[in-house]
Design a protein that fits this description.
single chain, 111 residues, mainly alpha
């Protein structure tokens, strides 16, 4: 009974987490500490002070790229799995993916 508890996955996971925390704490306590200067905390690490600029993210463009990635990722998965059982399903999915891409092409990048 005692040996079964010691080799059970939850107990081993708990031991691994505890050992990882101990190693992390020992490493943090013994690591060399760096000296922070004002120039090195600037946006550019070269030491020169540049005026900060607002970082602008175009969410609409990011969303379009995300949709393209999702379409191509799903297509690649279906295409890779279609080698096991070729038939009409991969062809139908390829046509649907192509239609989805063709529908997204005229989308305006900037509104």
């Amino acid at each position: 009974m005692g040996l079964e508890i010691l080799i059970s996955p939850p107990f081993i996971f708990f031991i691994v987490v505890i050992v990882s925390i101990i190693i992390f704490l020992i490493g943090g306590a013994t690591a060399a500490k760096g000296v922070k200067t004002s120039g090195k905390l600037a946006p550019y690490a070269c030491g020169e002070d540049f005026p900060p600029e607002r970082f602008r993210i175009d969410v609409r463009r990011l969303f379009i790229y995300g949709l393209y990635f999702l379409i191509f990722d799903a297509f690649a998965l279906i295409f890779a799995l279609s080698f096991a059982s070729p038939g009409m399903f991969p062809i139908i999915f390829a046509v649907v993916a192509l239609v989805a891409i063709l529908v997204m092409i005229p989308v305006k990048w900037y509104g």
